[in-house]
Write the structure tokens for this entry.
Amino acid sequence: MNTPICDFCEGYRKAHVSRLHMPGHKGQFFLGFEDLDITEVSGADELYAPEGIIAQSEKNATALFGSGRTLYSTEGSSQCIRAMVKLGLTLSKPAGRGKILAARNAHKAFLYACALVDAEIVWLYPQSGMDLCSCPVTPQALREAIAAHRPDAVYITSPDYLGQLADVAGMAKVCHEAGIPLLVDNAHGAYLHWYNRQHPMDLGADLCCDSAHKTLPVLTGGAYLHLSPTANAAIGAEAKAAMELFGSTSPSYLILQSLDRCNAYLGNGFSEDLNCCARRIAALRKRIPDVSQEPVKVTLDCHCLGYTGPEAAAALRSCLCEPEFVDSRYVVCMFSPQNQEADYIRLEQAIAALPHKEPLCALPSAVTPSPAVMTPRQAIFSSHETIPVTQALGRICGSPTVSCPPAIPITVSGEIITAEAVALYQKYGIHTVSVVKR
Ligand SMILES: Cc1ncc(COP(=O)(O)O)c(C=O)c1O
């Protein structure tokens, strides 16, 4: 597979031209890679109107993922989610305020997207009292919710932060029977196309975003927006404009090169390396209490070992293992083919070294519906103040006040903060919240 963006930047670096253009470092080393960091100079193409090297590289990505069309983002899945919500609603509701049915474990980027395009959100709650991070919904439950609410689009997150996978194929079928698109936040699952074709686009999603940087060897910020062949036919012409609407006018060429270079690896070698990694995790899984359904993510249920998440994470850190995410019960460790054997051994040894304790009981951590008195748009764009969680009961949530990870709102902007939400904030170690000013 060719790498036109990398080739162009390498040629530009070697040509030693006088850089009478941005960026201000002029190719001189401050961090050490500035000579490859260019802007839209002649021949470098434009991300939002590509005709040359970027168009060619995106075509390569489209072929690799087998999508109808794949677009690059240099601003993460966050940018793609905003574009996806706009495009998804355009697909089935070209005018007027769109209504979107969304699983409640959505990342806050989804809430911001809905605020920006003023979409109405109807939340799907988990059927069993699961975790803030997970929202298992069956196709049958989705069918009933669609019949009850008549949304213009459906939005789910799969894989979720804990590594749970939704029945994307079942949900896509239900959506298509209802004539509406399925939008999937696949930020954690770019690699899934190379694992038994389990990527949402393989399973029937209409639009989907992947954070390439989360699971592939891509610089932070690199992401994809995928359109299915049918979605591409209907909204392909608007896709770049939707990405541009929510992006910077100065996309990073370092990130574009990283996405371009990744194509060559995805086309040659990645599949074999991924399968080795998955086999190594499967072996590890036999010896540790892991609840992840993802092949290369480990979600330790620390309560089974008699520990809280922070206690287990401290033990891991003392063995030089830095996890991705920790909450009161779980520690999430993300692996990729680029991890080394020492990483697997360290994790296993750190867990094996934990003194045996009686299992702990889990405290409830599911989100419960809260009454909404403002739309997310009204609440997010109003004036806010930050107050202690202990004084927040009955106030209207302003901004979601959840850091990353997992960045899933405990209370949605515009909803009343309930006693259950206050308890959940405290459980997640959140001491202050942003509320709408009175
Ligand atoms: C489920 C989910 N969706 C979306 C995002 C946003 O992705 P990005 O950081 O690539 O903008 C994240 C980030 O952690 C995430 O976990």
The mean pLDDT is 95. The pocket of pyridoxal-5'-phosphate is lined by residues 76-78, 107, 109, 157, 161, 185, 187-188, 211, 223, 404-405, 407 (CB under 6 Å). The chain has three domains: 4-267, 274-352, 376-436.
